[in-house]
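Continuing the series of single-chain predictions for the mutant panel. This is the parent chain; the variants come on the following pages.
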Amino acid sequence: MRFCGINKTTLLDYPGHVAATLFTGGCNMRCPFCQNSGLVLEPQSQPEIREQDILAFLQKRRGILEGVCITGGEPTLQPDLEGFIRRVKELNYLVKLDTNGYRPQVLRYLLEEELLDYVAMDVKASREHYSLACGLPEVKIELIEQSVELLKNCRIPYEFRTTAVKGIHTAEEFTAIGEWLQGCKAFYLQNYRDSEQVIERGFAGFERGQLEDMTRAMAEHVPQAALRGMD
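Parent structure:
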């Protein structure tokens, strides 16, 4: 399996655990506000970290690290994702998967095989505006819906999360998202932050008061909704 980056120690990416974060290249979406444009648009040009080097690192950090967060890009595009996770589990690590949910068949299989300990799924927008948010002319929204239902009915901890972006989202958007995700265990709203790494420049984040209003709108349907990253 090919990796394009590693964060050797994080207290943020895997809630409640000290973890390493691994970045895969390639994605099946083109979200214009994505912060990882190199991984998405030019994965072949990114530095390559060999799987054996990753596993050797994890072997050395046993007892220090508790988990591994696999993110991207979109990890479910990787043909050897299952095999890599099995090798990580053999080292007694917890595994968290970050996904956009566009390959529910992969997510279902990994859940059925009990290879995941936590899943974070990005919900890009309401159903109506999903195509705009993920940068595709057409979106098979039923695939996203399948992944949402898989997580809402799974046995492991999970979260849904949305990045709020001016020009993509409105306050009303989060009422629709809340109605869609009603019954889920956890939802986090995070603010967009501009950088030179985004796929398309020109977007902006919201003021804190606006984000708090959006979170309250979500909480009418998802009581566990919370604002993340504003401390």
